[in-house]
């Protein structure tokens, strides 16, 4: 708990002017934290009893939590810097019953104990048996088999991932927030902040220079953060589980039960697509925090991603089917028409006032409308759906393109959604309900007959009675 007290203790010292009383308050806070943590440690116990794990806490009121081993979906082991220094680790148990939160957390066990507990907690799981829809399934292999170790040179792909590129702006925003929060303690008043803001506004070239520096720092800072989180990424199969390990400062190991994996999602942005790299997430039933725990691969070359997913989960062996031409017109309309409205507003404002600002708005709107044409065409080219007899696939998006591949056995229902504009165009959105991952994956703007035929192809036993009744 002590690292989390650092900022509050600094605040106490600043407020107290670094007097003897402020040091006394800080020391009292540290002492109280140590006592509280010690009591929590003494009053918390865990035990594996038969086929269940029991955790007990009796700090003020007695609490007993029982977790059946057969309900455990995965075990997440992480070692933050302080834990690593002390030879400890954090073990989190996920049952899928608590959404994005872990069901149980042991925040201070030794490395050997964590490995022992992982083996005991997952001992009931074996390699998934062969399934008629899984042509890749084979006899169980060795207890631990490496699938891929991501080479460190591939960390250079990190700046292509859009989320990490905003790292410099996040740091600046955090610094500004801390300045406002602790400004009075540091001797900076709101008047000082306003004066600094007015001075920067009066020196626009300096402000522009800072913005340019932040933009130039984006690939470097983004690449650094990406490397810290994905350092030495390893994916392997161990006793019926897919195990992903990654991280430089906080080393993390996530176990996903193979027999609960229902597919995978391949994601790429524009820059990643130009470089030929993708990211991969597993689609798993009952997995909390799937956006981080379900990651199978960071940015890797596209052909490597398909090889790994084929080995770890199963390949998709069919081409994606194109969507009707009306879907292209809808993509172009959405990408261009809003900017044409803005341009029209710019023309009206220019006619009414003649201000230069309206000229700027008009030019920018026309430029964005021009950019919308290739963007709309790319969004249409990204649309697709298909079925290979064992798995179905749907793809959509452009700035963030996503292709989900889901096993047929994972489909629990279909939903056909049609807006008023889609009805006029004769298209619809077909959503495959899946009891895993996001809960549903959509084939957007398919022809009406195409959507019904696709659902009937994947699950003919469900739709055949309705199609016969309609005379189809």
TrEMBL record:
Query: Does the keyword field hold Transmembrane?
Result: yes
**Segments forming domain YdbS-like PH:** 41-120
Pfam families, from UniProt? Answer: bPH_2 (PF03703)
Domain of life, per lineage: Bacteria
Query: Which parts pass through the membrane?
Result: 30-49, 162-183, 203-229, 332-352, 358-377
Ordered alphabetically, the record's keywords are:
Membrane, Transmembrane, Transmembrane helix
UniProt key word Transmembrane helix: yes
InterPro entries, sorted: UCP026631 (IPR014529), YdbS-like_PH (IPR005182)
Q: Per its UniProt record, what PANTHER family does this chain match?
A: UPF0699 TRANSMEMBRANE PROTEIN YDBS, UPF0699 TRANSMEMBRANE PROTEIN YDBT
Record's protein name: YdbS-like PH domain-containing protein
The record lists the organism as: [Actinomadura] parvosata subsp. kistnae
């Amino acid at each position: 708990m002590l690292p989390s007290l650092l900022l509050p203790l600094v605040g106490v010292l600043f407020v107290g002017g670094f007097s003897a009383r402020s040091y006394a308050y800080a020391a009292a806070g540290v002492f109280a934290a140590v006592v509280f943590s010690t009591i929590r440690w003494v009053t918390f116990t865990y035990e594996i009893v038969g086929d269940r794990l029991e955790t007990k806490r009796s700090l003020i009121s007695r609490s007993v939590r029982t977790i059946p081993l057969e309900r455990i979906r995965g075990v997440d082991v992480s070692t933050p810097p302080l834990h690593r220094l002390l030879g400890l680790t954090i073990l989190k148990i996920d049952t899928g019953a608590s959404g994005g939160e872990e069901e149980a957390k042991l925040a201070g066990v030794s490395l050997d104990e964590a490995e022992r507990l992982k083996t005991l907690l997952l001992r009931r799981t074996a390699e998934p048996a062969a399934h008629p829809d899984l042509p890749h399934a084979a006899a169980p292999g060795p207890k631990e088999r490496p699938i891929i170790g991501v080479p460190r040179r591939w960390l250079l792909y990190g700046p292509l991932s859009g989320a990490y590129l905003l790292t410099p702006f996040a740091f600046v925003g955090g610094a500004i927030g801390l300045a406002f929060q602790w400004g009075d303690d540091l001797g900076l008043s709101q008047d000082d902040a306003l004066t600094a803001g007015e001075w920067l506004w009066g020196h626009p070239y300096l402000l522009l220079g800072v913005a340019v520096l932040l933009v130039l720092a984006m690939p470097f800072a983004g690449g650094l953060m990406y490397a810290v989180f994905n350092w030495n990424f390893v994916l392997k199969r161990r006793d019926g589980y897919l195990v992903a390990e990654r991280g430089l400062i906080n080393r993390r190991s996530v176990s996903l039960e193979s027999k609960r994996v229902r597919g995978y999602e391949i994601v790429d942005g524009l820059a990643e697509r130009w470089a030929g790299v993708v990211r991969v997430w597993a689609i798993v039933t009952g997995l909390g925090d799937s956006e981080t725990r379900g990651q199978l691969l960071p940015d890797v070359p596209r052909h490597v991603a398909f090889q790994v997913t084929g080995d770890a989960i199963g390949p998709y062996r069919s081409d994606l089917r194109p969507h009707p031409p009306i879907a292209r017109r809808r993509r172009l309309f959405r990408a261009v028409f809003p900017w044409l409205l803005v341009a029209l507003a710019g023309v009206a404002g220019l006619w009414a006032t003649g201000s230069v600002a309206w000229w700027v708005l008009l030019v920018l709107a026309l430029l964005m409308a021009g950019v919308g044409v290739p963007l709309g065409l790319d969004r249409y080219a990204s649309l697709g759906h298909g079925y290979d007899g064992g798995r179905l696939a749907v793809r959509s998006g452009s700035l963030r393109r996503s292709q989900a591949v889901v096993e047929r056995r994972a489909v629990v229902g279909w939903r056909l959604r049609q807006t008023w504009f889609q009805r006029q165009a004769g298209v619809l959105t077909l959503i495959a309900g899946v009891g895993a991952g996001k809960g549903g994956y959509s084939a957007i703007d398919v022809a009406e007959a195409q959507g019904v035929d696709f659902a009937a192809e994947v699950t003919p036993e469900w739709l055949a009675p309705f199609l016969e009744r309609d005379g189809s």
